Amino acid sequence: MTPRFSIILFVVTAGLVITAGAVTSATSTARPQAMVTQPVGIRYEDFPAGKPFAGKSAPVKLTTRKARMFRTELREQASKGPDFAGHYTIAAWGCGASCVQFAIVDNMTGSVYFPSFYVAIGVGSTEDYEHIPEPLQYKLESKLLMVTGNLNEAEKGGVYYYKWDNNRLNLVKHDDLPTK
Fold first, then answer.
1. Which residues make beta-bridge pairs with 100?
2. Looking at the whole model, is its pTM more than 0.85?
């Protein structure tokens, strides 16, 4: 095996492992709340969602081309019930090596909301990979969504704190990724 081929194989394999981990955490039957870390300076409790929805989830509304394209993921993940902001489900799936796309599904109405970005999970030579959390972190009882990575493959990644309000994500704070 040539050194160039070995490096390419390593990069591809590492990307698949990272992507599989990100997607597994977001789509497994064990809800992501168990893997959530508490952001520094921002608390989930500061963005309360109110009483969680406990009824039967509404059928997912496939009113856009993008929603129809990802209908299987949206339906399967929404069927597990809400896991974000009281009555929403974060439906996430891989979009290539080290990449996560997601949508927010309203379990009460079936409406689907897509953010304006996807998350590339990458680190530079100065960033501390060991201390970078999952790309999407959230809780059922909070409107806070913590996104870690490079949004739309931007050159520099970070930790982005969004508040879900009026059916959209509003940026509250941005921090650089931890460095070595």
1. 94, 119
2. no
